[in-house]
Every structure is written in structure tokens, then in C-alpha cells.
Amino acid sequence: MADKKAQLTIEGLDEAIDLPIYSGTTGPDVIDVRGLINAGYFTYDPGFVSTASCESGITYIDGANGILLHRGYPIDQLAKNSNHIELCYLLLNGELPTAEQYADFESRIRNHTMVHEQIANFFKGFRRDAHPMAVMCGVAGALSAFYHDNLDITQEYDRQVSAIRLVAKMPTLAAMCYKYNIGQPFMYPRNDLSYAENFLYMMFGTPCEEYVPNPVFAKAMDRIFMLHADHEQNASTSTVRLAGSTGANPFACISAGIAALWGPAHGGANEAVLAMLSEIGDDSEENIQRFVDRAKDREDPFRLMGFGHRVYRNFDPRAKVMKETCDEVLGELGLGDDPQLKIAKRLEQIALEDDFFIERKLYPNVDFYSGIILKAMGVPTNMFTVIFAMARTIGWVSHWNEMITNGVRIGRPRQLYTGQPQRDYPEKK
Ligand code: CMC
Questions:
Q1: Longest dimension (CA), the chain
Q2: Residue 235 near ligand 1, beta carbon < 6 Å
Q3: Which distant-in-sequence residues (6+ apart) come within 8 Å of 3 by Cβ?
């Protein structure tokens, strides 16, 4: 399987260590360092900057050139020609569905949208003012307590049922988090609506009057789902894989992924963008510049949220598509003059022109625009990351399924120990 090999010479060792090199279908080669342990060495790579943690055929990112492919298809082509449900099928199964496969998959998702009635009681255990992501971590994990009939992860059928349940029920749970938070009744899903329309209905509909989803919003929401669906081995997906490597059930693994997503350096960034725009507040040029200067000051922890990405060092291809959708939604709402949007646009412009950001290749990422769109559609900021979690569920479960299908060893990293060497417990006087 090794196409080439690397040789590692270590001072004090007589012989070089041979390390096989493997090539993927595209992207950098990887050096297999597993043999190093035999020579008594570990590799050291905090933050996994240079480490491929697994083999995968789902998503490919070329950060230098701003390329994102799902199963080989570029994200902009998918966003333009496909929809979230078809993308879910593609990510999970590897190929685009035929018309018949699509109809079957879509109908299975539609028919699994309702959650066990007892889950409504489960919600009642939470404080109403709890952050919806806190509730999401709990209720997603609790699904394993409600749907334990198909939890034999060695069975392909069971894994598929769990994947369908997760994709179908996450919007219902997400909307329930919102309704619980604001004290409105939960809305049962409506299976005559599309995936995105149904989510908007469960969020914004009430039993008191008819709710007709705005088609521009439904399209924007579907785009948001698609653009967040998967992103190879990011922090939350790696968390799902690590949890899954122990044999934990998929609902527990997804709950772990939701927790990892919550952080502001990851999925929490879309919420942090709006918090930052509020903190900036005044849309005058001097004030905006003051915050930009703060972001450039190494002594100041302030960062421009929604800018920068570990992998994309040119532009974020998702941000390009999201920007178009952002313009569509703002146009529909006639919101071009909103002060926060003015700040956002100015920040975007400064970041694209300022040497500090250019040198460090800090461009607006997907979360910069998704936060703006969601706010414009009336979604409260504390729901932004919940929507990201809903959308990323298919990515998480596809990676989990791939990992189990390919066979997995428990994930167990080692460390560079810098604590106390062995010492004796002091004698008691
Ligand atoms: N504002 C100001 N400076 C920044 C920013 C920013 N948003 N991001 C990075 N930098 C600077 C950083 O201070 C460092 O400068 P220097 O070399 O002078 O010390 C340089 O750029 C490299 O930064 P880094 O922290 O080493 O980069 P990283 O790859 O470890 O972090 C990141 C990537 C996304 C966590 C970071 O850019 C960031 O915190 N961005 C804001 C949060 C955000 O928008 N996250 C969403 C990412 S996209 C969605 C997702 O993956 O969930």
C-alpha cells in the first residue's frame, strides 16, 4: 500500500527509521508514523496541525485554493443544483441518489420527524432560560434512551436507521429548544413541507394561525444546512469519531459533537459574530477602526469573529455562496441600511484590504455571513449554533458510519509529559 517511504534519522540512533508514505486520491501524502513507537518515540502535534487522524472518502478540502468537495462534488455546484436532503444521501452513501433512491430516502426522513411524546416531558426538566445548546447536548444524547431498538452498531441496517432518525429529528428538537425557551407550545412537524420549510414552521408557526414559510427564507435555510453539512475532520467531527471509536452509540457520539461545536472557535462563532457586532455598536468609521485595531493588537484578546480559518488560507468557498444568499435575504427584507449590517460590511472590506489580515490570510468565513442571514430572518442569536448542529448532524453521522464500516481502533493519543517525575509520598510525622 505504501507508495514511497520517508527515513527518519534520530541523533544517537544507529539506524534510520523507515516510515511508509501513502497517497490519497488527492491532497498531500501522509507519513505513517505508527512504527515510531517501536523505537520509543511519539509524535507531538498539539492542535493536530500536521496530523491526519484517519482515512476518509467523504469530504476533501484544499485550504490553499479554497476548494471543498463532498464525495468529489464542489460545494458551489451542490449548493446551486442540489438540496440538503440529496446532500445528506450523498454524504452518507457515497453517490448521488437515483430518482427512486431519492424519493425513498426523502420519505424516510419525512416519516421520522416526530419525536417520542415523552421527550416533551424531558424538556421540562430544563430551566427555560438555559442556552439552547445546553439543552441540545442533553436531548440529542437522550435519544438513545428513546430509540434503543436499533442500536446494534455492528449492523448496517441499525446504523442507517439511526442516521435517518438523527437527520429527521434534529430540526424538531432544535425548534423545541426555541419554543421552550420563549414559552410557546411545541409545534408538531408537518410532513407536507420540505425539510427547511418544516423547520421554519416548527420555529415560527403557532397553533393560533396559519404559517406559510417564505420561499426566500426556506431556500436560504436549505443553503445554510448544505453549507454546514460536513467539513472533514474538524473539532466536532473528530470528537464524534473519538467517542465512536469506543463503540458508544451514535446518539451519544452526536451529543459529544454538539458539545464540541458549541465553542466560539468552532460553531459558536456565528453567535459570536452577532455578539461582536453588538459590542462594536456604533457604526461610525472611527469606532469600527478602533475594534479593528484591537483585533490587530497581540496584547488584546479581542478577535474579529467570523474571520480566519485553520484550513482555508485563501478564501472559504462556503462563505462565497453564503454571501450571495445573504444578499438575497437582505434584499427580500429591504434591510440594506441596518447599522449592524453596515458594520459587518465595513469589517469585511477592511479585512480584505488591511495588511494584517492579508498577511495572515484572514478572510470572512461561513459563520460571518450565516449569522447575519439568520439574524435577518428573525432567528435569535442563541439558536445559531443549534442550527449549525442540525446541519452538521449528517456530516457527523456519515463519518461515524464510515469509521465503523471500515473498522476502528479506539482513539487513544499519547502526550509529552512535563509534570513531576516519580517521587515518594512524604512520610507522615
Ligand atoms: N481576528 C484577529 N486575528 C486573528 C483572527 C481573528 N479572527 N484569527 C486569527 N488571527 C491571527 C492570530 O492572532 C495569529 O496572529 P499572529 O501570527 O500574529 O499571532 C494568526 O492570525 C494565526 O491565528 P491562529 O490562532 O494561529 O489560527 P488558527 O488556525 O489556530 O485558528 C480560528 C483558526 C478559526 C480558530 C481563528 O482564526 C479564530 O479564532 N477565528 C475567529 C473565530 C471563528 O470565526 N471561527 C469559525 C471558524 S469557521 C467555522 C467552524 O469551523 O466552525
A1: 80
A2: no
A3: 21, 22, 23, 29
